[in-house]
Amino acid sequence: MESYSNRRGNSPITHFQIENERIIVWFNGGKSYSYSYRKAGRTHVEQMKILARSGSGLSAYITQNVRFDYD
Question: For the chain, how many structural domains are there in total?
């Protein structure tokens, strides 16, 4: 698990964990969501990995693209 750097300072995301075919995202309060190739799709998961590593835009991306597509 890695800390989300939250470059804009307003994200509810605190941590993330990148795996081969999924990303797990932790939010304030400790709630986590797992987004996999199977459920969210490879394109979305790979974009989320990029955003997680950059520390910016992940929460907005989740809200706009994969909000309920978690495992």
Answer: 1
